[in-house]
Amino acid sequence: MSIADVMSRVAAIENLTAQAAAPVATTTPLPQPVFASALASASAAYDAPPPSSGGSAVLAAAQSQVGVTEQPPGSNDGPQLAVYRQAVAGAQPGEPWCAYFASWAAAQAGEPLGAQGQGLGSVAEITQWASGTGRLLPASATPTPGDLILFGDSHVGVVESVNADGSLTTVEGNYANAVSRVRRSPGEATGYVAL
Q1: With 90 as the cut, is the pLDDT of residue 54 above it?
Q2: What is the domain-level CATH number for residue 119?
Q3: Based on the number of CB atoms within 10 Å of its own CB, is 80 exposed (0-12), middle (13-18) or buried (19 or more)?
């Protein structure tokens, strides 16, 4: 017997009990079956997937890298950038690396980007994947810390916070040749990716 069958039978018994206890000539509505409601709520909570902490773990990974720089500056390369490239199948040294960084942070959090978790090497690929998986949020959305922030097809970062004045603080790879904390206007974003 399924939980739904049990809940249905309990509700039927409670309704019969309430009807038997109620005066015949009453116009008062019958009481809501309390136990069936409690059982349904408990069952829904049990069946619901646990809340994801992926966004906060992505953010923590990104924050741990603030201050990493290209070596030499302007090269799109360096020892730590080589580590970021490992998160993206087919990544090449010397290429723009903001998407590599976002893919690395997501992989560190157990939320790898891409249909097979292969990481994504461009902002366009991230946007396409997010759209196809229902993770793409419009620019008008209020992001959550750990969401990716998109700037067209040219740049991606990680939202750190939404500030009281409406501005955003982000952690971005390949900003000024480094992993940088940046203050952004929400008008700069073209969308967000929920992780």
Answers
A1: no
A2: 3.90.1720.10
A3: middle
Averaged pLDDT, 147-174? 98
Do 41 and 59 lie in one domain? The reply is no
Q: What tokens does 146 get?
A: 């750990």
With contact defined as beta carbons under 8 Å apart, do 147 and 162 qualify? no
Per-chain mean pLDDT for the chain: 85
Looking at the fold, whether 65 and 124 belong to one and the same domain comes out as yes
Decide which of 47, 66, 81 is a domain's last residue. Answer: 47
Kindly report the number of other CB atoms within 10 A of residue 153's CB atom: 14
Higher-confidence residue of 90 and 30: namely: 90
Bridge-partner residues for 182, per DSSP?
A: 170
Strand partners, 168: 162, 184
Total domain count for the chain? 2
Same domain for 97 and 174: yes
- Tell me which residue of 100, 176, 188 sits closest to 152, measured CA to CA: 188
Residue 72's domain comprises 54-193
- Dihedral angle, C-alpha 74, 80, 85, 87, nearest 10 °: -150
Angle made by CA atoms 167, 170, 176, in degrees to the nearest 5: 115
184-195 residue pLDDT tens: 999 999 999 999
Q: Are residues 133 and 175 in the same domain?
A: yes
pTM of the model: 0.74
